[in-house]
Amino acid sequence: MLLTGTVVVDSATVIDEGAVVVDGTTIETVGERDELLDRYPDHERRDFDIVAPGLVGSHIHSVQSLGRGIADDTELLDWLFDHILPMEGSMGADEMRTAATLGYLELIESGTTTCIDHLSVSHADQAFEAAGEVGIRALMGKVLMDQASPEPLEEDTEEALAESEELIRQYHGAFGDRVRYAVTPRFAVTCSEECLRGARELADRYDGVRIHTHASENLGEIETVETETGMRNVHWLDEVGLTGEDVVLAHCVHTDETERDVLAETGTHVTHCPSSNMKLASGVAPVLDYLDRGINVALGNDGPPCNNTLDPFTEMRQASLLQKVSQLESTALPAATAFEMATVNGAEAAGFEQLGKLKPGWKADVIGLRTDTSRATPVHDVLSHLVFATHGDDVAFTMVDGEVLLDDGEVVGVDVEAVREQAQTYAEQYS
Ligand SMILES: [Zn+2]
C-alpha cells in the first residue's frame, strides 16, 4: 500500500509532499510522493493531508471504559475505592470483553496504534481476545491485588501469580506478536511484598515480559506506603525489584531527588498522564527534570473514568501546556518533545522494537489525517498542528502491522454499533 501526504517521519523530519510505502508488516520506503508514485504505480493508494506514525498510549485501562463519567470531581483514592474498584469487581466476562473492545475502538479511531493496558483482576483473557479482534498492538496484563482490596477483588497471592503465568503462556507474543504481556500489580498499597517480589520473579522467567504498575501518583498513596514499609514509594519498588529497563511506572508525580536518581540509574520508564493528574488533582509530574536526567518519559491517557477521553492528541497538548503553566516557562516541553513522548518514547517503554517512526524496515503502524476543517486552517507547522490543534476525530486511517484497522474513518472488521449498544446497556448499572 502507498500512503501520500505531508509525511511526519519523526519529530525532526517532515516531507511536505511525501509518501510511505508499506510491504507486509513493515515500511518498505519513505520519500517524495511523485518519485514513489512513479516507482510503485500499481500499489493500492490512500491520499491524506498528513501521514504520521501511530501513537503509543503508554498507560490506559480499557476495561474501565464503561465507567466514563461516573466519578468526576473526586481525588484518586476515593475515586478508586468508592467507584472504580466496585465497578471492576462487579463486571463479568461479557462486560470486560465489551469494555475492552470499546476502549480499543476508541484508541484506533483516534490514532493510537499501541497501548500499555492495565486490565483488572478477573477476566483478563477477555481483554486479550478483544485486542486480538480489534488488531491493536498492546503490552497488557492482569491486575494483581492481594491486600487492602475490597471483595471480590482481593486474591490469594499464589493464585494471582499463577493466573498471570497462565496468561503469559497463552497470550505473550500472540496475534502475530502484536500482543505482549506485562505483569501488572495495581500499586504498592494493594500488593504485599510477596506479591511484588513474585511479579519480578515471574517477569524474569519469560523473555520480553515486562512489569507495569502505578507509582507515586498521589500524596495519600505515598504516605501509606511509607507508613507500611518505612520507605519512599520508588525506593520500596526498587527494594522489591520493580525498577529497571523492563519496568514502566505510571505517573511518578511525587518523587524526591533520591527517587529520581533511582529511576535514572535503573533505566525505569515513566508514563506521564497529564489529564488524569489534573482531573484527580494529583499534582504535576516533574517531567522536565525526568527528561533532563535521561529518564524515558512516555505519555498515557489513563482510564476513561479519570480523563475522560482516550484521545492521544489531547494528551500531547495537555503534557505541553501543563509544564508551561507550572514552570511559568513558555518554552517548556515544546511540540516536538510531546510528539516524541507519544511515539518513540512510548515504543521504548512498551518494548516494541523499530516502532514510532516512519522509517524503512520499521513496523508499519501508520495513521492518516485530514485537515479539511476550519480548525486545521492554516497548518503553518505540522508538528505544532498535531500537538496543539488536532483532535482524534481528524484521524481517517489507522494501520497496525500493515493491516488497515480504520479506513476512511470507519473501523474495519468489528461491528462498532453493536459494541457501543452493548456497552451502553452494560454501563447503565454503574451510573
Ligand atoms: Zn492508571
Structure characterization notes:
There is one protein chain. Strand 2 and strand 3 (26-32) form a beta hairpin. The protein folds into two domains: 2-54 and 356-411, Urease, subunit C, domain 1, CATH 2.30.40; 55-350, Metal-dependent hydrolases (TIM Barrel, Alpha-Beta Barrel), CATH 3.20.20. It has 431 residues and is an alpha/beta fold. Helix 3 packs parallel to helix 4 (124-134) and helix 3 (93-109) packs across helix 17. The strands form two sheets. Strands 5, 6, 7, 8, 9, 10, 11, 12 and 13 form a nine-stranded parallel sheet that branches. Strands 3-2-1-4-14-15-16-17 form an eight-stranded mixed sheet, with helices on one face. The chain is globular and about 65 Å long. It has helices spanning 33-39, 76-90, 93-109, 124-134, 157-171, 174-177, 193-204, 219-229, 233-239, 257-266, 274-279, 287-292, 312-327, 335-341, 344-350, 382-389, 416-427, and strands spanning 2-10, 13-23, 26-32, 45-53, 55-60, 112-118, 137-141, 143-144, 179-185, 210-215, 247-251, 269-272, 297-299, 366-369, 395-400, 403-407, 410-411. Helix content is 40%, strand content 23%. Bound molecules: zinc ion. Zinc ion binds at residues 59, 61, 118, 214, 250, 302-303.
Write the layout of secondary structure elements.
Elements: E1 2-10, E2 13-23, E3 26-32, H1 33-39, E4 45-53, E5 55-60, H2 76-90, H3 93-109, E6 112-118, H4 124-134, E7 137-141, E8 143-144, H5 157-171, H6 174-177, E9 179-185, H7 193-204, E10 210-215, H8 219-229, H9 233-239, E11 247-251, H10 257-266, E12 269-272, H11 274-279, H12 287-292, E13 297-299, H13 312-327, H14 335-341, H15 344-350, E14 366-369, H16 382-389, E15 395-400, E16 403-407, E17 410-411, H17 416-427
Parallel strand pairs: 1-4, 5-6, 6-7, 7-9, 8-9, 9-10, 10-11, 11-12, 12-13
Antiparallel strand pairs: 1-2, 2-3, 4-14, 14-15, 15-16, 16-17
Bound molecules: zinc ion.
Zinc ion (ZN) binds next to loops.
